């Protein structure tokens, strides 16, 4: 039980770190005027949004469209990063969030029914490979009704490989076949390796093996492929 709890905690930290790394690489600079309850704090940091003329789209070669195999075209100036924390409820900052040029959400965090607190606009949804099945439980909402959203899926190469053996990539291929308008991108192996390197340099830990080492320390062997 101790192993499971520690493992969940590590996975949560890893997901947040990976999410932030991807955001940094998809924007011109780290300029996030609205970061909402990222670690569950009760306070909300607010800054007024001002109108900034949109710049030409930038090409991000580390993120490839599953359907077209083309790199991501995106440029963000003012960004709102919306937390998945339940403490967002009752904050009533939905209008402020939607005024930003790009709104970032994580995994399958809902907006329907919570627009007053979290807004309804989603520009980018960064999704962990482990959360893809959660999106596929409600594909009509995520890939049809909300098809203006760009989905950036990240994960280890073994799950994202394109040779027919990538479990997650195969799921995404079926999804774009069913929802051809869905804008789904995956991180390239090179980009994922770079993010892994930054994570290890900053934390001193290997993102993909850290959770396994915790379980071994507690005398529990983690089955292959569960990370």
Would you mind describing this structure in some detail?
The chain has nine helices and eight strands. The protein has an eight-stranded mixed β-sheet, sandwiched between helices. Helix 1 (2-26) packs antiparallel against helix 9. With 227 residues, the chain is α/β, with parallel strands linked by helices.
List the helices and strands and how they pair.
Blueprint: H1 2-26, E1 34-36, E2 58-65, E3 71-74, E4 79-82, H2 94-98, E5 102-106, H3 115-118, E6 124-128, H4 132-136, H5 139-145, E7 150-154, H6 157-160, H7 167-178, E8 183-187, H8 189-203, H9 210-217
The level of helicity is 25-40%
Structural class by SSE content:
alpha/beta
Q: What is the overall pLDDT average? A: 76
- Please describe the biggest sheet, giving its number of strands, its sense, and whether it closes into a barrel: 8 strands, mixed
The count of β-strands is 8
Strand content: 15-25%
Q: What separation lies between the terminal Cα atoms?
A: 17 Å
Shape: globular
Count of alpha and pi helical runs: 9
Low-confidence stretches: 1-6, 29-52, 213-227
Assembly state (oligomeric)? single chain
Which terms would index this structure?
eight-stranded mixed β-sheet, 227 residues, 9 helices, alpha/beta, globular
Summarize the structure in short.
By secondary structure, this protein is an alpha/beta fold. Helix content is 37%, strand content 17%.
């Amino acid at each position: 039980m101790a192993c499971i709890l520690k493992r969940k905690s590590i996975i949560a930290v890893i997901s947040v770190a990976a999410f932030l790394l991807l955001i940094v690489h998809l924007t011109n600079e780290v300029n996030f005027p609205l970061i909402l309850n990222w670690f569950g704090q009760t306070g909300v940091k607010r800054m007024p949004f001002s109108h900034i003329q949109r710049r030409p789209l930038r090409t991000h070669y580390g993120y490839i469209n599953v359907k077209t195999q083309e790199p991501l075209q995106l440029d963000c100036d003012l960004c709102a990063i919306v937390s998945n924390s339940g403490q967002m409820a009752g904050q009533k900052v939905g209008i402020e969030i939607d005024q930003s040029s790009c709104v970032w959400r994580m995994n399958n965090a809902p907006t329907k029914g919570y627009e007053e607190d979290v807004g309804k606009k989603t520009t980018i949804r960064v999704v962990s490979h482990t959360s893809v099945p959660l999106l596929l439980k409600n594909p009509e909402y995520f890939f049809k009704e909300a098809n203006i959203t760009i989905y950036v899926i990240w994960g280890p190469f073994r799950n994202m490989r394109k040779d027919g053996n990538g479990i997650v990539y195969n799921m995404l291929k079926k999804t774009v076949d069913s929802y051809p308008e869905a804008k789904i991108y995956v991180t390239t192996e090179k980009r994922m390796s770079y993010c892994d390197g930054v994570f290890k340099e900053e934390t001193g830990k290997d993102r993909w093996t850290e959770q396994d080492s915790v379980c071994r320390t507690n005398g529990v062997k983690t089955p292959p492929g569960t990370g």
